[in-house]
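Entry 12.
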Amino acid sequence: MKIMITQSEALEKGIWPEVMKMFGLNQEDDVWASEEFVLSEEQAKTLGLIS
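Predicted 3D structure (tokens):
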């Protein structure tokens, strides 16, 4: 299963720093609020999005 989350959703949930690390992003990278990131089931579990 794949889970999709946008940058704005990750910010709302307070998990944006963790998503940045998972995708190798840093503060200098330009990311749109609507940009989507595809998470594996394991990544989504790690972030507490699913149980």
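Annotation: The first strand starts at residue 2 and ends at 6. The mean pLDDT is 97.
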